[in-house]
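Example S7 (structure tokens).
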């Protein structure tokens, strides 16, 4: 089964930048897409960004458009989230997720990492 391990979460001041990484491993990795979700205290989990693994097409949540960039390195099965112009509202636990092989709309994400904490101070 696919295992996902996030890293890179940290405490950062508003306006700063941070890069999150997610390494996928396991018996077979053939997900159609990978994505970043986040959940802040008192809020529902929301999609941050997603990318199709083969073609690289991307989707972003409205709150992060223009500030975050999702990318992947297929050679090492690694997903990235480059976060810039960080705001206190970006404070959340960020989760990496991998979808099923099928291109479903909306995608199904059965594989999840443990999460990494991002805290943005005022």
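Recovered sequence:
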């Amino acid at each position: 089964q696919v295992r996902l391990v996030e890293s890179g979460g940290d405490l950062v001041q508003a306006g700063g930048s941070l890069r999150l990484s997610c390494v996928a491993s396991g018996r077979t990795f053939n997900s159609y897409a990978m994505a970043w979700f986040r959940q802040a205290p008192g809020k529902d989990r929301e999609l941050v960004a997603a990318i199709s693994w083969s073609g690289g097409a991307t989707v972003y949540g409205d709150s992060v458009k223009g500030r975050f960039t999702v990318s992947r390195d297929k050679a090492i099965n690694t997903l990235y989230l480059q976060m810039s112009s960080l705001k206190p509202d970006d404070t959340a636990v960020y989760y990496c997720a991998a979808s099923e092989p099928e291109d479903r709309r909306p995608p199904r994400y059965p594989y999840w990492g443990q999460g990494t904490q991002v805290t943005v101070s005022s």
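Notes on this example. The chain has a mean pLDDT of 95.
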